[in-house]
Amino acid sequence: MDELRRHIEKIVSLTEDEFIAVKSFFTEKQFKKHRFLIQEGGNATNEFFILKGLVKLYYTNAEGKDHILQFAAEDWWVTDYNAFFNQAAATLNLDCLEDTTVLSISFDGRERLCAEFPKMQYFFLKKSNSGYVALQRRILSLLDGTAAERYAQFRLLYPGLVNRVPKTLLAAYLGVSRETLSRLA
Amino acid sequence: MDELRRHIEKIVSLTEDEFIAVKSFFTEKQFKKHRFLIQEGGNATNEFFILKGLVKLYYTNAEGKDHILQFAAEDWWVTDYNAFFNQAAATLNLDCLEDTTVLSISFDGRERLCAEFPKMQYFFLKKSNSGYVALQRRILSLLDGTAAERYAQFRLLYPGLVNRVPKTLLAAYLGVSRETLSRLA
DNA sequence: GGCCTGATGTGATACAGGTCACAATAAATA
DNA sequence: TATTTATTGTGACCTGTATCACATCAGGCC
């Protein structure tokens, strides 16, 4: 739970009492490797903060091909945000690459948390803003970069993930075939 | 200015007095076609709300090739968000495809506006959240779709822009060459 | 230990889309 | 009105990646 506090305090500071109140909105949960946190067609009523482990968020297209939107390891937030914010059915899948421990917060919980603590609303705003910028960067690398450049960029940006994620999945994140990535590596 | 109020009130409601206070944070500005609102290397101290007109936000790579991150017409917000949020030098360009009127707000202004009106912070949070989801969707269409599919999707999503933006620029947005787009149309 | 499944490498071949080149309008601007 | 400067189309050719097909090797599990 301390991870959450350290994480939040990178942006806003909290008193002891405030943090106790904040953390009451979260529930700790454990998932084994291969378990789903969200499945297409199901609900996505929770957002997850990863305490330990590694998950992948992905879309499976009509031909059964997966495209990975995000990996999330320690200190990352993840959910099917479209489904979460709009309280709609999930179109994405989220499952564990490793045994994973998360803190879970419901949509309503998050709304109440933000209403009660403007600081936390500020925190989520800053997070959302930097997430937006990160996605813009990724779009640019898809528009501008070659497969090799995107791979190099990924290694720079997420050195810790490169040797933790199988190449097949890295390929599904980068938008390259497994075989092509293998020829680059 | 009424456009701004209508736009905000889709998410939070404001009293007359509140709106008067809110709008004092904005300045109206006019730009002619081809004028730059932001240039690479310059500053991006302002965020713009488009009242009238059309702009493009783009990145120019080392070979001089442009990649369009965003078009923004009436009721859209736009800036180089990386530079804006981090108070850093711009890496993107923003210029006018048509004569354009905007409401401009500075970074500091926006921070004070959010601090003073939690409602407005909530507004910006919701906007950022849906922006994030929209970029995820675009990433998926870059990962999954063929050029023709992306074009079809764009027409569905932004029917009003298709005949307002030259095909050359649409191609730079979709990540296809001008020639290929022409053969699809 | 032995078996199965997932991860990775590599060759052969196919194709979507890029690049280059030229032409014809349409639209700004002097 | 005249003169550039954008915009769009289209042919010819090239190339980065996808696909398909095997082969190998490591790790988890019975």
TrEMBL record, chains A, B:
Residues 29-115 form the Cyclic nucleotide-binding domain. It comes from the Bacteria. Pfam families: cNMP_binding. InterPro entries: cNMP-bd_dom, cNMP-bd_dom_sf, RmlC-like_jellyroll. This is Crp/Fnr family transcriptional regulator.
